[in-house]
Structures are given as structure tokens and as C-alpha cells.
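Re: that backbone. C-alpha cells:
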């Protein structure tokens, strides 16, 4: 077996070391992520230095890059809180959040990669307890859910945004009440709905009755005006006109003049 030249072995070793150094010096960051550079021979992470964006990067082999996801993320959270009257309420919510891109270095130095469990989770629980404690179970179950959701969002923002975390939204998917309280609220809501329907029927009936009264009053007024305007002379003239038209009919046979009431003619005999 032919031996390698003495100078060949150091070259091979050098190439291997070079490959290792290059492998340690290259970093590829995916889309939706950013890197925080940790300088081993320096002071760690420089909070004033901007993050490394997606793409290919060269770094010193003794340094390392800490990867952060910068896209919007969802953290589901189930909480048990107390209402204003001390009843146990369970909330099923989701928090939509992302780290502040420009402040990733500060976030890493203060909270680290586990910032969601160290900051976000305690913050939303604290905000939920504070907000829900101002409402009754009935308000939580029905009319105030959207307002409560908005209030929890604002309370959470006050806590986490100074700590370099951006809250985009908080969604309350479900509110679970004690079964007896839920049934009582549903009965009350049903009774209120039935009462509103009954009141609507009463109002509708009253409007219909009012319409009939107005129409009847209009007819009565019209008849009264007509009666006041019809004198005996006018009635006689109208009777004469009607008699003349009947006399012209081929079916009229006998006309008795002056035999009717008020001296109006009477027509006798029809085919």
C-alpha cells in the first residue's frame, strides 16, 4: 500500500478543519424567522444591534445565532376565573401575538425564548381575572362577551407591550358556567324573549285597532257631512232624474204621477 506523502496529511487535516469552520460559520434563517447573534467572546447579545433577517449569513465560528419566529403565533389558554358574585367561570381563549422584531435582542436578554410562558401567559390570566371579576355570569354568557374580550385585550397589552411583545388579538371561544347557573340564565332569557314577543303582539293589535277606529271615524264623518248636505228639495230632484231615466227604459209600462211619497212618480208594470 502506497503511503501518502508527508505533506499530504497536514493538507487533508487542514481541509477538514476548514470545512468544519465554514460549517460553523454559516447560518440560514427561514422566512418568518429572525436571528439574534450571541457573541461568545464578547458581551453576549447586543440589545442595540438589529436582528438577522431571513437568508444566508456568515458568523464567527465561536458565536451562535438564536432563532426566533417573528410571524403571528397563537397561544390557546384555558382559565378558571371568578365572576363579580364569586362564581367559578371557565374561559377558553386564544392569544394572537408576535415578538417585536426591532427589539428581539432586548426580548432575548430579558425573557429568552420562553417569553410566551414567562410573560404572556401570566399576563392574560391576570387580565382575565381582573376583567371578569367586574361582571355577572349573565353578562358573561350573553350581552357583554364582546366588551369583555376587548377589555381583556387592552389589559393584556398594558402588561406585555412594554416587554417587547406585540398582542394582535384575544379571542374568547367559549364561556363555561356552572350548570345550574346556565340553566337559570337560559330560563330567564327565554322568559324575556316570550315577554318581548307578547308585547310585540299587543302593540301590533293596538295599531290594527287604531287603524280600524280611524277608518270607522272617517266613514262616520263622511256620512254625517253627506246627510247634512241632502235637503228634501235635492232628494226630490234626484228622484225626478231617476224617474226620467226609468221612463225611457223599454221595460217601463205605467207611470203614476204624484202617487209616491213626497209627490214622486211611481212606475208600475215591468216585462
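Recovered sequence:
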Amino acid at each position: 500500500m502506497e503511503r501518502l506523502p508527508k505533506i499530504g496529511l497536514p493538507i487533508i487535516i487542514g481541509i477538514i478543519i476548514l470545512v468544519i469552520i465554514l460549517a460553523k460559520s454559516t447560518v440560514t434563517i427561514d422566512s418568518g424567522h429572525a436571528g439574534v447573534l450571541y457573541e461568545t467572546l464578547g458581551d453576549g447579545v447586543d440589545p442595540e444591534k438589529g436582528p438577522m433577517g431571513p437568508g444566508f449569513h456568515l458568523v464567527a465560528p465561536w458565536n451562535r445565532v438564536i432563532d426566533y419566529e417573528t410571524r403571528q403565533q397563537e397561544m390557546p389558554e384555558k382559565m378558571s376565573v371568578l365572576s363579580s358574585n364569586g362564581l367559578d367561570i371557565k374561559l377558553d381563549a386564544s392569544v394572537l401575538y408576535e415578538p417585536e422584531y426591532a427589539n428581539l435582542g432586548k426580548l432575548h436578554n430579558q425573557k429568552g425564548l420562553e417569553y410566551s410562558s414567562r410573560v404572556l401567559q401570566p399576563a392574560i390570566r391576570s387580565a382575565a381575572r381582573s376583567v371578569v371579576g367586574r361582571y355577572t355570569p349573565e353578562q358573561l354568557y350573553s350581552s357583554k362577551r364582546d366588551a369583555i374580550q376587548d377589555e381583556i385585550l387592552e389589559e393584556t397589552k398594558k402588561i406585555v407591550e412594554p416587554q417587547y411583545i406585540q398582542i394582535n388579538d384575544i379571542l374568547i371561544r367559549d364561556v363555561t358556567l356552572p350548570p345550574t347557573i346556565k340553566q337559570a340564565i337560559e330560563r330567564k332569557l327565554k322568559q324575556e324573549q316570550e315577554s318581548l314577543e307578547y308585547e310585540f303582539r299587543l302593540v301590533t293589535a293596538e295599531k290594527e285597532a287604531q287603524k280600524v277606529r280611524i277608518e270607522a271615524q272617517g266613514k262616520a264623518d263622511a256620512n254625517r257631512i253627506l246627510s247634512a248636505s241632502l235637503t228634501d228639495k235635492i232628494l226630490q230632484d234626484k228622484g225626478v232624474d231617476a224617474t226620467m231615466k226609468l221612463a225611457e227604459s223599454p221595460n217601463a209600462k205605467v207611470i203614476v204621477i204624484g202617487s209616491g211619497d213626497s209627490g214622486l212618480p211611481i212606475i208600475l208594470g215591468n216585462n
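The beta strands are 26-29, 33-39, 44-45, 55-58, 64-69, 73-82, 88-99, 165-176, 254-256, 266-268. The chain has four domains: 8-69, 73-177, 187-229, 232-268.
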